Amino acid sequence: MSPLPPRPPGASPAPPTAPVMSLRGIQKTYRLGQHVVPALRGVDLDVLAGEMLALVGPSGSGKSTLLNLCGLIDRPDAGRIELRGTAVHDLDETRATLLRRDALGFVFQGFNLVPVMTAAENVDFPLFLAGVPAAQRRQRVAEVLAQVGLAEHAAHRPDALSGGQRQRVAIARALVKRPALVIADEPTASLDSHSADNVLALMRALCHAQGAAFVIATHDDRLTRRCDRVVRLLDGRIEPEAGGALEVHQVQNPQRSAA
Amino acid sequence: MSPFAWMRLAALNTLRNRRRSLVTVCIAALGTAALLLAGGFALYTYQSLEQAAARDSGHLVLGTPAQFEGEEDVPLQHGLDGVAELRRRLLADPDVRHVLPRVAFNGLVSNGEKSTVMMAVGIEPDSEFAIKGPFLGVSAGQVLTNADQGAVMLGAGLARNLKAGPGSGLTLLSATTQGVLNAMDVQVKGVFSTGIPEMDQRLVLTDVATAQKLLDTQRVSTLGVFLRGMEATAPAQARLQAAHPRLQVQTWLERAVFYRSVRALYNRIFGVMGLVIGVIVVFVVASAMAMAVVERTREIGTLRALGTLPRQLLRTLALEGLLLGGTGAVAGALLALAVSVALLVFPVQMPPPPGRSEGYPLQIAIEPTLYLGVLVLMLKLSTLAAALVARRTVRKPIVEALAHV
């Protein structure tokens, strides 16, 4: 992966792998009483199809804000966001919701499964929302649950699953509709190291198998080591590397290289 | 998307906090039962009073307009003539089953030592008692018959006042239709109670012939027209009024002052009660749903992030309210039904109402339209309450909802 500086007007040809999401000049501020707190101060970032991109940085650096903007659950104050070449930064609520439903997946730190639904029903929910016929849904849910190794737990409710199993259900839910982009917020933070390793391996495998891009906010070094790219944020900006490169620290991932 | 799937999700959600849901359902059930029992009691009372009023006067009452509008200078000044022909014509109507004459007059009744004011009514005893059934509580003696000429029945209070009983001789005094004072000796055949002490202090029943003889006339005050059923009242009134344009045909409702007063009073009492119960149910369902919604704020944020539209979430949460309110309403309806049937099997006597001397059986009308109306009302109220409290949360910014602790 190469660094992606802001694209000047009329510039250069498209990169070899098309970005699934492109952010340019993103600014976001929060108002806390009388104080205005800048969360992002002009961020440019491309997320390429099929890559695992880690967002790292200290608390308050803007990771979560950037993640929310990538997930279309928040809007920037300024800047432009494109999803597969279409501007999405100023969509109204309904269109943003439908786009999230159709093109994005989410994995949360606390799993955020619906407790009254079984594992299969949780995984099925995005397909149900999208109006996929029941027979196709059943087939696809069984397929994805098998991919995450939970075929035998399909009828279990979340409270009957371990933390690692719940996160695998959440990953299955995120990937069941074959999204272009999966937003993952600290997906291993609530897991023990063994479960975290399993979940990471699974995300990695599914990322490559399905060609979905992952944007992952994390503090977990084990996770960043497995990502294709690591973007470090500091004070609302993408931090240049010590050598002077603008934003990206590329990880030489042996699995990725081998693939 | 299948509405059944949303309903199932709503049902599962109601089972999350079973105790809270149970309390909500119980209060909705008690509210529904209270509305149905109170409404059923009011309906039973209305129906009883309607039938009593129609039975007392006839479904329709025929008289001269002046008879209904003004006071008479002398008895039967505005009475009806040609009663036999009039009855024949009235009985020709397909809805008319009976026509009973009535002679109403005032005067004095005396036992020779003591005189007191009376309100007297001349009736056709055989027809009157045959048609109306046992409408009087006879406490002594027997009811009048057509064969009894010069006999009377006294109200219980009046009999007590005159120290009279069956077989006692009394004298009736009244002005004739010419304004001349007339007197007639009569014999007491029986003593009765209407259930209204004021009436029992004054009322004297006699036969039409005796009354007409005392008043020296062939007229009657009014004709009571008894129809095949209450529902025939309005059409029959229109027909008879058209057939007798010089007379006035009033319905039982126009003459039933007591019924109208009771109905107006009960409507207000039960209306306020219904309003209070409705408000309680709305608050209980809203409170339960508010707690459920707040507890699930993060989940709501998650579902929105996954692509659920606010209106879909609102619908699911409203369905939860509907399920809670609906379950309570059905349970309340069953409870009300059971109580109503139990009162038929095990009668409970109510104490006499104000102004009455006799109690009445406590019964609750089982009226399908009332049940349907209350069920629909409870469903609407609980659905609306749930939707109102959920509205803000489902529109909360997703980032805020996901950060909710």
Could you write a compact summary of the structure shown?
The complex is a heterodimer of chains A (259) and B (405). Chain A is an alpha/beta fold and 259 residues long.
Q: What does the secondary structure layout of this molecule look like, with pairings?
A:
The complex is a heterodimer of chains A (259) and B (405).
Chain A: E1 19-32, E2 35-48, E3 52-56, H1 63-70, E4 78-83, E5 86-87, H2 93-103, E6 104-107, H3 119-129, H4 134-147, H5 163-175, E7 181-185, H6 193-210, E8 213-217, H7 221-226, E9 229-234, E10 237-238, E11 248-250, H8 254-258
Parallel strand pairs in A: 3-8, 3-9, 6-7, 7-8
Antiparallel strand pairs in A: 1-2, 1-4, 4-5, 9-10, 9-11
Helix pairs in contact in A: 3-4, 3-5, 4-5, 5-6
Chain B: H1 3-14, H2 18-57, E1 60-63, H3 65-69, H4 83-91, E2 96-110, E3 115-123, H5 125-132, E4 137-141, E5 151-155, H6 156-161, E6 169-175, E7 181-193, H7 197-200, E8 203-207, H8 208-215, E9 222-227, H9 233-243, E10 248-251, H10 252-255, H11 257-295, H12 297-305, H13 310-345, E11 348-350, E12 360-362, H14 368-394, H15 398-402
Parallel strand pairs in B: 3-8, 5-7
Antiparallel strand pairs in B: 1-9, 1-10, 2-3, 2-6, 2-9, 4-7, 5-8, 6-7, 11-12
Characterise this structure:
- The complex is a heterodimer of chains A (259) and B (405).
- Chain A is of the alpha/beta class.
- Chain A is built from eight helices and eleven strands.
- In chain A, the strands form two sheets. In chain A, strands 3, 6, 7, 8, 9, 10 and 11 form a seven-stranded mixed sheet that branches.
- In chain A, strand 1 (19-32) and strand 2 form a beta hairpin.
- Residues 1-16 and 242-259 of chain A have low confidence and may be disordered.
- With 405 residues, chain B is α+β, with helices and mostly antiparallel strands.
- Chain B contains 15 helices and twelve strands.
- Chain B has helices spanning 3-14, 18-57, 65-69, 83-91, 125-132, 156-161, 197-200, 208-215, 233-243, 252-255, 257-295, 297-305, 310-345, 368-394, 398-402, and strands at 60-63, 96-110, 115-123, 137-141, 151-155, 169-175, 181-193, 203-207, 222-227, 248-251, 348-350, 360-362.
- In chain B, strand 6 and strand 7 (181-193) form a beta hairpin.
- The longest helix of chain B has 40 residues, at 18-57.
- Chains A and B meet through helix 2 and helix 3 of A and helix 1, helix 12 and helix 15 of B.
